[in-house]
Amino acid sequence: MKKLFWLEHLPLIIFSIVEFLVVLLVFWFDGYDHPVTAAYAIFLGLFILGGYLLYRYYSHRGFYERLSEPMRSLNESIKHKESAPLPAALNQLMEEQYRQYQSKLMDWERKQKEHMTFMNQWVHQMKTPLSVIEMITQEDDNESYKSISEEADRLRRGLDMVLYMSRLDTFEQDFSVEPVSLQKLVKDVIHENKRYFIYSHVYPEMLVDEDIVVQTDAKWLRFIVLQLLSNAIKYSAGSGEKVTIKATRAAHGREVRLEIRDRGIGIPKSDLSRVCNAFYTGENGRKYKESTGMGLYLVREVALKLNHRVELESERGKGTIVRLIFNP
Predict the structure, then answer these.
(1) In the chain, where are the structural domains located?
(2) Rounded CA gap, 238 and 202, in Å?
(3) Of 197, 227, 237, nearest to 319 (Cα)?
(4) Rounded Cα–Cα distance for residues 221 and 93 (Å)
(5) 10 Å Cβ neighbour count for 232?
(6) CATH hierarchy code of domain 175-326
(7) What is the distance in angstroms between the CA of the first residue and the CA of the last residue of the chain?
(8) Residues 189, 192, 197, 203, CA torsion sign
(9) Which label site among 49, 167, 217, 290 has the fewest CB atoms less than 10 Å from its CB?
(10) Measured between alpha carbons, how far is 307 from 160 in angstroms, rounded to an integer?
(11) Distance (Å, rounded) from C-alpha 272 to C-alpha 267?
């Protein structure tokens, strides 16, 4: 606070001193030779300047404190009442800006809620006819129905991604930590993707012990595993290889790792550092037109909110390993 005060008034102090010296030089050139009187005049000038600076400091002390100390909240910027004209005018301006900011923020939040409500309703409305299509295609072994069923699966996965994406901003209101059996959850996800496995000529391999339980949100963890498994199937389709889902417990018995490994095309080394960025599809995304660049981004964001870690290893032509690490 004091440093800011002196920095602001340093030009005034320098100007005043130069002014005193110029006045003394004028008298000296005019032949005035009374050094005691001149010194007394300078003393009076400095005394008056010091009095002004003292008044300025105490009348604007609160103002300088506000400028020197960081705000902990926006409300702190408008709670102060100032008596000096300039701080009072600035405080009034900040209050008006704060009111406008609050108004725009409330308007933005209202639009966001409306958008999220619309997206949720739209997704649920689309799931109804999709369920009907799936029921019809399951009742017939016609080859064309199998293609329709495959596309229906893709639509369902896309709708689920939209639904979870819209809920990400309100994550804190929509999660509950509880003990979750990894084996049961992985089995459910594999079963949900069984047709995707069959159509893609890829086969699941589950190496998850029954006793491995983690503390997490079952719904959001299921979404993470579903995304990772879908990616593994998509990028190894037609290979006839296995997709391995493996869970291991660290030596100390607390940290758990869930590993999903495919033996597909892999990720180019140049893309590894960016594949978790939103909308980044990379080189593989140009080959697979259905890639959105949002799958791994959502996985990373949800994992961070659940206090889990995501690690990624890949080698082009040999496959990809994604590890989900549950911190103790």
Answers:
(1) 2-99, 175-326
(2) 7
(3) 237
(4) 48
(5) 27
(6) 3.30.565.10
(7) 45
(8) positive
(9) 290
(10) 22
(11) 7
Alpha-carbon distance of 57 to 321, in angstroms, equals 64
Q: State residue 254's pLDDT score.
A: 76
Those residues with Cβ within 8 angstroms of residue 60's Cβ, 6 or more apart along the chain or in another chain:
5, 84, 86, 87
**pTM (two decimals):** 0.65
Rounded CA-CA distance 164/119 in Å is 10
* Mean pLDDT, rounded, for 213-227: 91
Run of H or E including 107: helix 85-138
Burial class for 280, CB neighbours closer than 10 Å (0-12, 13-18, 19+): middle
The per-type count for the chain, helices as H runs and strands as E runs, is: 10, 7
Looking at residue 133, its amino acid is: I
pLDDT tens-place string over residues 11-21: 888 888 888 88
Residue type, 310: V
The C-alpha atoms of residue 229 and residue 236 are separated, in whole angstroms, by 11
Q: How far apart are CA 170 and CA 216, in angstroms?
A: 17
Check if the beta carbon of residue 189 is closer than 8 Å to that of residue 229: yes
Residue 78 has pLDDT above 80, yes or no: no
Residue type (1 letter), 261: R
User: Residues 321, 313: contact at Cβ < 8 Å?
Assistant: yes
Q: What's the rounded Cα separation, in Å, for the pair 33 and 21?
A: 15
- Which tokens hold the place of 74? 């926006």
At 153, which helix (H) or strand (E)? Answer: helix 143-167
